[in-house]
Write a structure and sequence with these properties.
The protein is mostly beta strands. The chain is built from 1 helix and 5 strands, in the order βββββα. It has a single domain, classed as Ribosomal protein L28/L24 (Ribosomal Protein L24e, Chain: T). The protein binds zinc ion (ZN). Zinc ion binds next to strand 5 and helix 1.
Length: 74
């Protein structure tokens, strides 16, 4: 899903790393994938990142949790 929201985000500066939220810095975490027969293997959970237009900073990746918070602030 691609949503183009024009949101005014206070751009703190610095470089946003790949696959990381630009506001809270949320990134992937590791956990276990458990099959139905209970075989366990490692997997990663990525943050739910969406590309949004940031004023004065172009397009940045922001997690959906931060988007919801920003939407509420408006
Ligand atoms: Zn975030």
């Amino acid at each position: 899903m691609y949503c183009e929201l024009k949101i005014v985000i206070k751009y703190v500066g610095g470089v946003c790393m790949a696959k990381e939220c630009c506001i809270c810095g949320k990134k992937k975490i590791s956990g276990n994938q458990v099959s139905h027969s209970h075989r366990v293997s490692k997997r990663t959970f990525g943050a739910n990142l969406q590309k949004v237009q940031v004023e004065g900073a172009g397009k940045e990746y922001v997690c959906t949790k931060c988007l919801k918070t920003l939407k509420k602030a408006d």
